[in-house]
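Hello again, I could really use a second opinion on something today. I've been staring at a protein lately and its backbone has me curious. Please have a think about how the structure follows from the sequence. I owe you a coffee for this, so here goes:
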Amino acid sequence: MGDQATNALIAIALGTLLAVLLLIPTAAVQYRLDGRLGPSDLVILFTSAVYSLAIWTYTLLPMPADHTFRCKGSQLRVLGSLGLIHVPHHGGPLALLREPAFLQIVLNLLLFVPLGFFLRVILHRGVVVATLAGFALSLLIELTQKTGDWHLYSCAYRLFDVDDLIVNTLGATVGSLLSILVVHRRTGKIVLPTTISYGRRLVGFACDVVFIALVGATAALAYRGIEIYLRDVPPLDVDRHVQAALQWGVPFAVEAVLVLGFGRTLGEWVVSLHTVPRRRRLVLPGRLVKLAVGVGPIFVLAPLYNQVVGPLAIALLAAYAVLTLVVAWRTQNHRGLSHTLGHLDLRIGDDADEDPVELAKATQSG
């Protein structure tokens, strides 16, 4: 497999991981701004995450082993790279596609086109900001190459080329200009949804799973780091029972506080939903049922994956996930299993002041 293919795979793999990590903050912002997180938003999240990693992989990788490369100098003549292009006498313009120096310039231009596009789509910034951002990012990359990854290497293993600054900056500008054709400026007031969609519930479920995995892994790694590097415990002697207790106990404690204290999981907070009890006196019992039937089975079954009953636990967890999704799809307002059993209603907003149902009632009574 060639270096370019390897770089692409690394960008896709790490970009996918980055997109998953960014799902929670992205959803939290989008549901409060627009009241929705559509397929196009998810595509932009994924592609921008992969692109941000591709910038790194294609400009700095592969990183050579020390003492196995020749030091590279600098190309400081403006448009000096054009002199390296050999215009073929036969084959017409298409023959340029076989000219390495020409392809290098074109690829450097294309590499920064998405930057201008994403700056307009995500941050709503135009040509000036895209041009400055393209120059700044290109300068950072070139200085990183010039200094041997900031003196990680004894000398530069890639060429510092002033023309790259020009071409990359131009690419970001072109990307911003082209994005005008596909990005439409919003006019008028944003109309927020008044009903809970199934997609909103799915995003909430996904955010809960990501949160549990991320916080659990962080707690487990922090414990291992303290044991190995601060207490000098051999890696094989780290207490796996304590590690497992932290991995599942820390996210459970957070979810339990949110559900019992505020009536919603982390995922429901992300997608801006809150619960309302059908009977006031059943608030606490309803929240206990919600905790036990909602995220509870994850913390009961998932820790058993490496035990003797692991296959059964995984099968039960999969069945629970399918049941949860089906009931959420079929129930009114997509309440789901835990809210139905706990006699809780789901409402839009972080509290009653943002609930469209309550606002409509207040308007009618007024």
